[in-house]
Amino acid sequence: MTKEELLFCLLSNEICGNDLPENFDLTDKTAELYRLSKQHDIAHLIGDALLRNKLLPESKALIAFREQIVLAVYRYERKNAEMERVSAALEEAKIPFIPLKGSVIRSLYPEPWMRTSCDIDILVKKEDYFATGKYLAEKLNYKTEEYGSHDISLYSESSVHIELHYSLIEDRFLDSADKVLNKVWDYALPVNNTKYCLSDEMFYFYHLAHMAKHFQGGGCGIRPFIDLWLLNHKLEFNKSIRDALLEDGGLLKFAKNCEKLSEVWLGKDKHDETTAILQEFILNGGMYGNIENRASVSQGTTKKRHIFSYLWKPYNELKYWYPGLAKHKWLLPFYEIKRWFQIVFGGALSYKFKERRVLNNTEKSKLNKADKLISDLGLKQD
Q1: Alpha-carbon span 326 to 317, nearest angstrom
Q2: Which of 53, 123, 129, 137 could cross-link to 166 by cystine, CB 3.0-4.6 Å?
Q3: Residue 188 CA to chain centroid, in angstroms?
Q4: Mean pLDDT within 14-21
Q5: Element (H, E) at 247
Q6: At a CB cut-off of 8 Å and minimum separation 6, what does 55 contact?
Q7: Which of 42, 44, 49 is nearest to 12 (CA)?
């Protein structure tokens, strides 16, 4: 068996409780398995499955996997404790908020520590955005690191990263999806007078939209597919309502292929042409994607179009990076110039040139494969 096949057998055992196949054989593959699982931040899941099944003798690999399990538990405990502090503070101030992503979905895992995350994501209303950031900084002694296009980055005294969002639109990539995400509070269900949760269909839509955004950035890793499988197997839901929202947001085709790949990895489905290419893309990109994947999926129909689209951003995209532009569209040229300065002096320009070199050196067959994949997933834009 390949290291990829071993990994997905162990994941299926860990998450779904499926038996390992009779031909499961780790011989000479342990180090490769560790590197691959760590690349996707799931080494703790693979390590736990190996330990439960008593498949690892005392070795350096056993120590490495054990360390990843301990680290995952530690990360969970820190973030969970901080989430409780933030929630209590927001409830005390009567600021409406919605927990997002990992803090919600980890309840579907066999154990909550199994769902790792890099930060705590919380959504507040746009009118409460700045006041909430200031309040948390004063109330909980958080350090304000950065004001982004849609969020504020805060850090606790224990270095837990909190992202305070006022919008679920992280970057313009699909107009139809953005229109759905703009209506997020229409799908908010009260937990108490202050805390809300997203309805099933909006949570599912947002999960797919977030996957698609990262996919177009070069890859989203394995973990979102585990989340997707759990959302489809551990919850009661109305599939027709989910699909209707995905159709409205232009993500139904993408969702169907991602759902199928999750069933290939964790269920009994077999690959088709699209999921086989999608798997190659995801495994190559790692948890956060890579420059080769990003260059391949961001290619335009011509090189000139690719370069022009980077140098000059349309108003509907730029306003998400500079919220002040939304009220003063006439300032568009000034914000374009501001963005150019940030590109030149912020290091983005050198990255873009590197991406261009990678794109120029990538085999045409790979670019054609990436282009076909984007089209098959319904993410190709004119």
Answers
A1: 10
A2: 129
A3: 21
A4: 95
A5: helix 239-248
A6: 26
A7: 49
275-319: pLDDT as tens digits: 999 999 899 876 555 555 555 566 543 344 444 555 666 666 666
- 3-class DSSP state of 30: helix
Cα–Cα distance for residue pair 325/329, rounded to 1 Å: 6
Q: Which residues, 6 or more positions from 239, have their beta carbon under 8 angstroms from its beta carbon?
A: none
Rounded to an integer, what distance in angstroms lies between the CA atom of residue 36 and that of residue 1? Answer: 15
Residue bearing tokens 């949570």: 203
Look at the alpha carbons of 142, 348, 308, 278 in this order and tell me if their dihedral is positive or negative: negative
362 phi and psi, to 5 degrees?
Answer: -85, 135
Residue type for position 186: D
Task: Report the amino acid identity of residue 60.
Answer: K
**pLDDT, tens digit, 9 for 90 and up, residues 223-280:** 999 999 999 999 999 999 999 999 999 999 999 999 999 999 999 999 999 999 999 9
More confident residue, 140 or 56: 140
- Residues near 189 by beta carbon (within 8 Å), at least 6 away in sequence: 196, 197, 198, 199
